[in-house]
Amino acid sequence: MLTPTLALSLGNKALCVATVGPAGAQVIQLGDKRIVPAVIAFTPEGRRYDIEAAAKRNLCRQTYDSLPLLFGKDPSFLDSPRFRRIQSFLNLPLKVQDGDIYIELGPDAPPAPFEFAYGSLVKRVLGEASLQLGWTGTVDIIAPYLPFWPSHAQARLTAAIECTGYKCLALYTKHLALGACLMLKLRQPNSRLGPGFHGILDVGEYYSLYAIFQLDTSEVTTMYLNYNVGLGAIDFDIRLADYFLGKLRAQGRESLCDLIEASQRQRTKLLHAIKEAKKILSVNSSANITLDGVGDAGETLTISVTQSDFVAMSMDLVSQYSQLIRAPELTSRISSLSITGGGSRIHPIQHAVTQVVPSALITKVLNPDNSVAEGLGCLALLDQDKYPKKTIPVVRDLCYRSIYILPCADDLQLSGPYEVFKTGDHLPARQSITFTLPPGPIQLKLFDSFEDNIATYTFVVPKNVLHLAVEVAVSINIQLDRSISIEVAQVGGPSLNLSRVWPDPVTSSMFRDMLLKLDADLTKIEEEAEGYATRINAICSRLYALKADEKIDETSRQDVLEALDLLEDGARIEDSVLVDLEERYGVHTA
């Protein structure tokens, strides 16, 4: 690729970044880690990330993880019983405004679109990656989205990425990225996979997705796609939480249960204790759920749970997963099944899979952390025609939505609609269609089989002497990332100027301006907080040195101790006081 390109794989709990080059995608180290926790906290000093943000989870209400949770969601899901139970543990400060879901940045700050948290994480992580790689100037980003997102969610995700200063080269559906990664594994020497049908179960925190691909070394085709947006890894966490509280009640400790239920801090701590126990249950037959600091006496509560207990309490969830992967006819033909995503190691999910697929067919060929980024790299190389020329593979999706075009004048339908891309067509695709249209402004409206408006293109049919209808040839190009471009020309005549009108330019511009202003405001706060901290640290360093100096007199030592007490108190110190201390002790900061 001519421009440095990074693949961003952001899951519900963690993210990784990969460089994209002729050899594919290569996951890079971010500091000392390949996988970074996707946690962000909004504090009075600005945004905090990763471990620092996680540490503030019980202190700062405006702390978010599970970032992709709300993309493409109907705001009404906030009122669902499932989300209310989840919310009782996470207490995400969310609100619905103007039909969209917003997050809170602080008590005195205006609410922000949820995409702002995503964009902030992207800016931070990709900034570190570019610095580490020594990349300056333009950097292109490719990222995944989920197949059940509507088009406007994809547009807002693109805006959130590009508001950080990076160019969003393309978005690809997550199931296609996983399928491409599977094909890469098949093409490797001595691969454990063979040509045929292969299944992938992607277990996210709040959703689950199942796809079956037909693979050989030169083609990957999505044959089946199913998903459940009301079923995910967090449902097992909630089930373990209810088990923990139920066991306490059975021991006659209702008062402690009531105390935990009434304390947001204790409920959040319980959920994270459960996640640790869940990890242990993926490799051991039993684990302890331990919650400390409960009640006035600060009790430590421990409840043991076995793998069989875990399966028994989750049988309804197990049944839903078994149903999810029961693809008519195709499941019996698969030669392997991979479980990926953040919940891939949950024991009851593995139990559910073995109810449908023999355990011998379950493979760990896909790395839950890296597979999406690797697949994104493959798709980007294909889309940009940069794939190594030997045996260039074909990506085909039998499960993507059909796309239709509708010519209109003054919002009145002229003819059609016409199908220009049907489920099962190869990507990229190029279609041509000729319309007989009256002179004047014309809109070409594109929509899919979900009745989701994709785009509206406008142009003007030139007038002729007789004011007769004109034949117009329309060429439609659909790329691997589902992006669509249109060329329009008068038959036997010149090309016509075309403009794209979707998303609505006013709304889109307002959304982008909102994200940019929020980022600028917080960046200013963060710079001021960083400058303040630098001054405090410089003064403290000087005072510690004086405190250790045995040559200073007692009066001066007492002044130093009083100054240290003031600085270590944690309260905000007026600028005039800092200036006085800097001048008195000869401290200079840039």
TrEMBL record:
The lineage of its organism: Eukaryota, Metamonada, Diplomonadida, Hexamitidae, Giardiinae. InterPro entries: ATPase_NBD, Hsp_70_fam. The keyword Secreted does not apply. GO terms for molecular function: ATP binding; ATP-dependent protein folding chaperone. Keywords: ATP-binding, Chaperone, Nucleotide-binding, Stress response. One of its GO terms (cellular component) is endoplasmic reticulum chaperone complex. GO terms for biological process: endoplasmic reticulum unfolded protein response. Pfam families: HSP70. The keyword Transit peptide does not apply. PANTHER family: HSC70CB, ISOFORM G-RELATED, HYPOXIA UP-REGULATED PROTEIN 1. This is Heat shock protein 70.
